[in-house]
């Protein structure tokens, strides 16, 4: 595997503290995970710290397991607990913190899953990072090293960590404030590799957070306030990346809202026009932000398709979820994409949203039929996920629709859209059920998760573990939470707070 380091790596550091950065997936995926690789870079640049990436397919480690002082896990998706357990299992490390003596490494994690609701997982970690880990992670490791060199106990270290913003120490921390990174330094791919899931692609984060704050969207609420990287910094880093590769990607929940997004596209377009062969991709664009200049750049950079998220086909339901998007804007986005030289567009949507009716589902068929009629020869694809209630969003109190009901809707859409020559894609209603369980669960799920892992982690394991341990999973998934009840994740201090979410829930649900 060839790797190109885009920072000055120290090869002869005076190291006395060993860290494994644990990634719950294969090496190729880890190399394309911008946050994970950026945290690795920050530790790799620090004198005194020896850091190594360890993934589920890692066969031989440079640092012996018995010499590891701390393991930091990335936790971005609900099902990541399975791979985290597999790594701990591989190196004979007990899953629960209470079963690990001081001779075991410190085990902690960070990422959107534990920031949103760490309670189902808190027994497995010595502490958890809540919020942005960009700076927090390095400062924590430096403190851990300091305490180790001073001969302090794990208990003394955890007491100190519990006083820091962004650190949750189970059984010590009462409330925790989310850590916050201002993006001034800009996060970008620090290591290019041909083994990455996106081979030799330079990814740069141009924005974090989203103004729109759809009622279901945890990515919006967890990443407030919205932040943009300065245009000059973006161009500087793009030039760094383009010295080593011709593949670039812009990342962010609201890329097109960047105050100078059109200027960024113009910069790339001019370089392409001057003869450079640049391939550029972007994460999904807002339908109302697609312009001819943006599409022109994407087409010139080799992108054949783009993605827009409409969430719902009916304007009524889009208002319920706070997706302020008109049908005219949807049609205009498809028109611009087609006329700009793209081959097709993927339309991302959801089913099972609060207040959804059969009429809302039927609107997808009408919308698809109308789009196809006026965009002949243009590839239009619909992709559907199912609504999962997430913590810290206005819809955190809403129930998830039953698997049976959702599968009826999926089959209906599949049948009707196929009549139009479309092949829609759907997320698994069954797996989404268990995603909701983990999203809304509490600390009573710890033994359940271990049981799931021990029984193979397939769908059947989730069901049999619940039966064996007498856990009512429907209570967490399909139950409507009272708006005034205490929720497992209420101890996490976010802005805006719970009162705002209550008011927003009432406003949206009554549309």
Q: Can you characterise this structure?
A:
By secondary structure, the chain is an alpha/beta fold. The protein has three domains: 3-177, Response regulator (Rossmann fold), CATH 3.40.50.2300; 200-302, Transcription Regulator spoIIAA, CATH 3.30.750.210; 304-511, 2-Layer Sandwich (Transcription Regulator spoIIAA), CATH 3.30.750.200. The chain has 19 helices and 19 strands. It has helices spanning 27-31, 34-44, 80-90, 112-116, 136-149, 154-161, 218-222, 231-242, 261-273, 292-300, 315-320, 327-339, 358-374, 403-418, 429-440, 446-454, 459-469, 473-477, 498-509, and strands at 3-5, 17-23, 49-55, 70-74, 106-110, 127-129, 167-168, 176-177, 191-193, 201-205, 207-208, 227-228, 247-251, 279-282, 305-311, 344-351, 379-386, 425-426, 492-493. Strands 3-2-4-5-6-7 form a six-stranded mixed sheet, sandwiched between helices. A four-stranded parallel sheet has the order 15-16-17-18. Strands 10-13-14 form a three-stranded parallel sheet. α9 runs parallel beside α10. The longest helix is centred in the C-terminal third of the chain and has 17 residues, at 358-374. It is globular.
């Amino acid at each position: 595997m060839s790797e190109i380091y885009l920072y000055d790596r120290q090869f002869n550091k005076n190291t006395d503290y060993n860290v494994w950065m644990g990634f719950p997936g294969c090496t190729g995926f880890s190399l394309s995970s911008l946050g994970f690789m950026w945290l690795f870079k920050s530790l790799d640049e620090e004198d005194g710290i020896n850091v190594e990436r360890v993934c589920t397919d890692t066969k031989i480690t440079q640092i012996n397991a018995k010499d590891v002082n701390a393991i930091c896990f990335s936790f971005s998706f609900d099902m990541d607990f399975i791979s985290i357990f597999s790594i701990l299992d591989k190196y004979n490390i007990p899953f629960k913190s209470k079963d690990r003596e001081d001779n075991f490494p410190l085990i902690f994690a960070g990422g959107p899953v534990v920031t949103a609701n760490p309670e189902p997982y808190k027994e497995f970690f010595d502490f958890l990072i809540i919020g942005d880990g960009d700076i927090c992670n390095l400062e924590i490791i430096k403190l851990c090293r300091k305490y180790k060199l001073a001969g302090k106990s794990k208990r003394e270290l955890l007491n100190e960590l519990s006083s820091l913003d962004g650190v949750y120490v189970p059984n010590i921390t009462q409330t925790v404030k989310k850590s916050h990174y201002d993006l001034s330094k800009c996060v970008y791919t620090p290591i290019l590799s041909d083994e990455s899931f996106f081979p030799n692609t330079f990814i740069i984060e141009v924005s974090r957070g989203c103004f729109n704050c759809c009622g279901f969207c945890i990515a919006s609420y967890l990443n407030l306030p919205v932040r943009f990287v300065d245009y000059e910094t973006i161009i500087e880093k793009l030039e760094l990346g383009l010295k080593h590769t011709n593949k670039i990607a812009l990342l962010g929940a609201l890329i097109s809202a960047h105050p100078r997004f059109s200027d960024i596209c113009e910069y790339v377009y001019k370089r392409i026009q001057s003869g450079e062969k640049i391939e550029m991709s972007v994460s999904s664009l807002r339908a109302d932000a697609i312009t001819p200049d943006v599409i022109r750049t994407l087409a010139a950079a080799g992108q054949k398709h783009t993605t827009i998220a409409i969430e719902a086909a009916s304007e009524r339901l889009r208002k319920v979820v706070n997706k302020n998007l008109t049908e005219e804007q949807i049609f205009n986005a498809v028109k611009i994409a087609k006329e700009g030289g793209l081959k097709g567009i993927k339309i991302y949507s959801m089913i099972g949203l609060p207040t959804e009716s059969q009429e809302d589902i039927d609107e997808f068929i009408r919308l698809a039929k109308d789009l196809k009629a006026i965009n002949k020869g243009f590839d239009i694809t619909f992709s559907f996920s199912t609504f999962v209630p997430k913590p810290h969003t206005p819809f955190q109190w809403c129930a998830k629709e039953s698997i049976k009901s959702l599968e009826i809707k999926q089959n209906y859409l599949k049948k009707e859209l196929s009549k139009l020559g479309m092949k829609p894609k759907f997320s698994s209603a069954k797996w989404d059920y268990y995603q909701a369980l983990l999203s809304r669960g509490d600390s009573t799920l710890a033994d359940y998760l271990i049981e799931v892992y021990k029984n193979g982690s397939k769908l059947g394991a989730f069901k049999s573990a619940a039966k064996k341990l007498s856990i009512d999973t429907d209570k967490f998934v399909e139950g409507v939470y009272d708006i005034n009840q205490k929720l497992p994740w209420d101890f996490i201090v976010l802005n805006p707070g719970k009162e705002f979410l209550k008011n927003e829930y009432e406003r949206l649900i009554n549309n």
